[in-house]
Design brief:
mainly alpha; 0% strand
Length: 316
């Protein structure tokens, strides 16, 4: 009996029970799952605006910045995305009914996060954005985006089409200025010509891009008319349903021609701009279902990316 007891005691000492490691593994797994779920929720907040804001701004910032190093690409992408997240949180906290109609997969209508938690996260992101911007020396651009977000969303300037388009134009300009970066705007180590020349080109490009946005950004509103009517929003497609569609091919073709001429682009480059813009505009006239408008809007954003890089590649 004593020998058996000693053997049993020896087994316990030499072979510890696997309860603690299993619990530890389950704890780590649960934490990783929760972190993934939280990251996926944040990504869902910004998903529908990646093509609208993130990629065009990243393209412009990379093309406009006279620093050639690819090491700036990741910080630039992070800066754009966290500011986009701030805007999306602000916007979606205020319009859960609209999202339930237009985009039910978004975090709030799908139940992934409550309005209260999203609102807390929205103001937390304001602080995060300012701190990150202070590190990169673009606080003024971050403040401009914060004020634009406040005006567009909390102050309700997105309810009517004209202030809505103006807020969008200001927002794009602030995004582009921030993505270009303080060092780039200072004209350090330019790719082409003198530093002041490149700085002037970047500023002119931002002004023209803002004018393009203020006159054509209603392209994003055609697909959302059902939800916009639900919230009482008066976008151009609601106020002028047919006229707003017929102006799209005219505006996109006219802007393509003007920008190619202004930036002295080659005939091939000009043809590419028109070939990208005109079909997108024509689609808004020929097809008016929500799914067709989404496809037309994707084509519009591809055209917008081409417009963003035109000043910096037109001479090549």
């Amino acid at each position: 009996m004593l020998g058996a007891a000693g053997l049993f005691h020896s087994t316990l000492v030499s072979s510890p029970l696997p309860i603690t490691p299993v619990r530890l593994d389950l704890g780590v797994s649960r934490i990783c799952k929760q972190l993934y779920g939280f990251a996926y929720t944040l990504w869902l907040f910004t998903f529908s605006d990646l093509k609208t804001v993130f990629f065009p701004t990243l393209v412009f910032g990379t093309a406009a910045a006279p620093i050639s190093s690819t090491s700036q690409l990741v910080p630039r992408a992070i800066w754009i995305w966290i500011h986009l997240l701030q805007f999306c949180l602000s916007n979606q906290c205020l319009s859960p009914a609209e999202d339930a109609s237009n985009k039910p997969w978004r975090p709030i209508p799908s139940g992934r996060i409550t309005v209260g938690s999203a609102r807390l996260l929205r103001w937390t992101m304001l602080v995060v954005c300012l701190l990150v911007s202070a590190h990169y020396g673009v606080v003024a651009q971050s403040i401009a985006l914060a004020l634009g977000t406040l005006a567009h969303n909390e102050l309700g300037m997105d309810a009517a089409w004209l202030p809505r388009n103006v807020c969008n134009a200001v927002g794009y300009a602030a995004f582009n200025a921030g993505a270009t970066g303080k060092r780039a705007l200072a004209g350090l180590t330019p790719r082409t010509g003198g530093g002041e020349e490149h700085k002037a080109m970047a500023v002119a490009a931002q002004v023209l891009n803002a004018l393009v946005i203020v006159s054509t950004i209603q392209a994003q509103d055609f697909q959302d008319t059902a939800g916009d009517r639900l919230t009482g929003r008066r976008t151009l497609p609601i106020v002028f349903p047919r006229c707003s569609r017929w102006t799209m091919p005219v505006l996109l073709a006219a802007w393509s021609t003007f920008l190619a001429t202004y930036w002295r682009a080659s005939a091939v480059h000009a043809a590419v701009l028109v070939a990208m813009g005109a079909p997108a505009g024509v689609r808004f006239v020929l097809y008016d279902s929500a799914s067709a408008d989404r496809q037309s809007y994707r084509m519009y954003n591809l055209w917008l990316c081409a417009v963003h890089v035109t000043p910096f590649v037109a001479g090549y």
